[in-house]
TrEMBL record:
Superkingdom classification of source: Bacteria
The UniProt record lists the keyword Ion transport: no
Protein name: Hydroxymethylglutaryl-CoA lyase
GO terms, molecular function: lyase activity
This protein's UniProt keywords: Lyase, Metal-binding
The species this protein was found in: Thalassotalea profundi
Listed Pfam families: HMGL-like (PF00682)
Keyword Secreted: no
Length: 303
């Protein structure tokens, strides 16, 4: 077998409290969200997407984000990030003392039109004021690109399209670009091609991957990304969040499963798996449903 080189260390970006919970129907109160975030931090997770400053009318689950950020007991070595879709959201995130913010663009024109009623370029232009103010305030901005291998409306997405959008976000000032397989259709081959195309325009160390597990390929795709030199992986505790574009499908890859994979490869994450599992069981009990994580269910069965 040929030698495969993996990174020695991988940063996990925990998106469960935001991206995960916002797709869960059962509303979780601020106290329980805070407890989840604090448990994740105590497990060694160094980056937690803790909320989103959007209209509660559109995303009711995120209505408590200000309270969550204001009442959190924070660890000094943990980044507590917020998604901010517009300037109003950015200002609210700053008022609540978010560590940094995230903005987003799509690699699919149809997805952009149907979701935010504007073109890809128009959507990115809307973020320019945020980038200007964030830079002046020395606030880091992370960029998301959705539909990086497939779109619910257009089907397959050309890798070059993804590379162009990612480069625009990078040139705007995003310090890291997270490449999101929004509907979870990626395969090892399509992911490898996509990462190769994007890495021609942006340094690999500035890229992250964000996989949904709709077709059960998320861990395989993460393995492929690691082989390609990616060192940052987004995931959600307990596999929180269904995929809104694929009925009945599981959503984000579970953090427990990702950490188990990385542990098996001898890749350092700084995360305590036992404490991580406890955090997953805590929020799953609050949601009154079992974790999507296979590792979590296997460990719980052993107890």
């Amino acid at each position: 077998m040929p030698d495969i080189t993996f990174p020695k260390q991988v940063k996990i970006v925990e998106v469960g409290p935001r991206d995960g919970l916002q797709n869960e129907k059962k509303l979780i109160n601020a106290k329980d969200k805070i407890a989840l975030i604090e448990q994740l931090a105590n497990a060694g997770v160094s980056y937690i997407e803790s909320g989103s400053f959007v209209s509660p009318k559109w995303v009711p689950q995120m209505a408590t984000s200000t309270e969550v950020f204001e009442k959190l007991n924070r660890l000094s070595n943990v980044t507590y990030a917020a998604l901010t879709p517009n300037m109003q959201g950015f200002e609210a995130a700053m008022a609540a003392n978010a560590s940094e913010v995230a903005i987003f663009g799509a690699a699919s024109e149809s997805f952009s039109q149907k979701n935010i009623n504007c073109s890809i370029d128009e959507s990115l232009e809307r973020f320019q004021p945020i980038m200007t103010v964030a830079k002046a305030a020395n606030i880091k901005v992370r960029g998301y690109v959705s539909c990086v291998v497939g779109c619910p409306y257009e089907g397959d997405i050309a890798p070059d399209k993804v590379a162009i959008v990612a480069e625009k976000l990078f040139k705007m000032g995003c310090y890291e670009i997270s490449l999101g397989d929004t509907i979870g259709v990626g395969t090892a081959a399509s992911v490898e091609k996509m990462i190769h195309a994007v890495s021609q325009r942006i340094p690999l160390e500035k890229l992250a991957v964000h996989f949904h597990d709709t077709y059960g390929q998320a861990l395989t795709n993460i393995y492929t990304a690691l082989q390609s030199g990616i060192m940052v992986v987004d995931s959600a505790i307990a596999g929180l969040g269904g995929c809104p574009y694929a009925k009945g499908a599981s959503g984000n890859v579970a953090t427990e499963d990702v950490v188990y994979l990385l542990n098996g490869l001898g890749i350092e994450t700084g995360i305590n798996l036992e404490k991580l599992l406890s955090a997953g069981w805590f929020i799953s009990d609050k949601l009154e449903k079992p974790p999507v994580s296979k590792v979590s269910n296997a460990y719980r069965a052993k107890k």
